[in-house]
Structures are given as C-alpha cells and as structure tokens.
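User: I'm new to structure prediction. If I give you an amino acid sequence, what do you actually give back? Let's try with this one:
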Amino acid sequence: MPPEGAGAPVADLGALAARVRELADRTGRRVVVGIAGSPGAGKTTLALRLVEALGPDAVHLPMDGFHLANDTLDRLGRHDRKGALDTFDGWGFLALLRRVHAETDHTVYVPSFRREVDEPVAAELAVEPHHAVVVVEGNYLLVDEGPWAQVRDALDDAWFCATPGGERERRLVDRHTRHGRTVEAATAWATEVDGRNAVLIESTRDRADLVVSGELAPAAG
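Assistant: Good question. You get back a string of structure tokens that encode the predicted 3D arrangement of the chain. For your 221 residues, that looks like this:
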C-alpha cells in the first residue's frame, strides 16, 4: 500500500490517536501499530506520546529489547556495529508480536533496553489483557528480508517516522554524548554506524501505510 501523505508527513497527534481508536473499534480486537524509522527520527518519543494520548488501554513495546547481548555481539564479531540489522534477534521479535496478537487472556512479558547499561533487560515491560492497543517501534519493522519480512504482516497499521537527516544526526550525537562518548566518537558513530543503518531503513519508507513527522503538534484538549 502506498504511504498516505508522502509529500507532507502527518504531524497531528490527535489525528493519529483518532486513527488508532477507529482501527481498534473497527476490528474489535487488540491491534498492533508499528512505527518504523531511522535512528534519531523520534520513534520512541512518538510512541510514548501516542500511548499517553490513547490512555490506559494502550502500551508501548520497543524493538530495542531484542538487541543481542554485548557478550553475544563480541562472540559474533559484531559489537563495533551494534544497531545493525543482524545485531537483533529478529525471530524472537516476530514471535513476540505473534504472541501479543494471540495471547490476550494473560500477561505477555516483554524485554526492554537500558541505555545506561547498554543491554536488554528481560521481562521488564508487560502487555496486559486489558491492553487493546500495542504501539511497537523500531528501526527495522518494514525491512523485507529474513524474519523482518514477516513483521509487516504482524502489524495492523505500519507508520514511518520521517525526520530530516541533519536533525536526526544532531539528536544522535547528543544521545551518544549523554551516554558517555566524546563528541568526536559520538559524531563518528552517528555518521558511520547509524548513518549506514539509516540507508537501509529509509529505503523501507514505501512499505508504510502512513508517513508521520518526527515533530508532532500536541493533541487537542
């Protein structure tokens, strides 16, 4: 399906929340909304604001909990490009999305990712039976290879969070310096590692149902 509003990404949080509510009402079951986008695009901020706007029946599920552990990355020789497609457990993430759809009568526990320790944390988050909307966000939700090719079909609505490259890089340098890197090292990682990953991620934009701005207007009321 071609993305809606490809020329002018949607920037109205109220309209986005209304879209999700209408989808949940129409299907009459738990829905999973996916927000893809490049590093620094604002996916997490968008997901958290959307969940807040939707209220207590919505929950945030980040893909970052499926980072491979640092010891595993060391063993595989991939630690120097952490965040690339093959540094995540794609099959595990796909299995979780299928569980979230199918298992609505009990709690489904979800791993999170703690930047202060740079590691995933098992079962820190929870999708409860009352959660009618699960907002998933991550870089690779729309990639068409390996297990990721099946993730798209596990989403009831797929969005792409679009933010200009210069702003994304600024955010990334700020993020990396706040978590201990020098400005030089942060800039190198943002341009070389994150930038390389962004080339793949930006190419998946056309697989989204909706293109959303990384800079949202506040919801009315």
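You can read the tokens as a compact description of the fold. Here is one thing that stands out. The mean pLDDT is 91.
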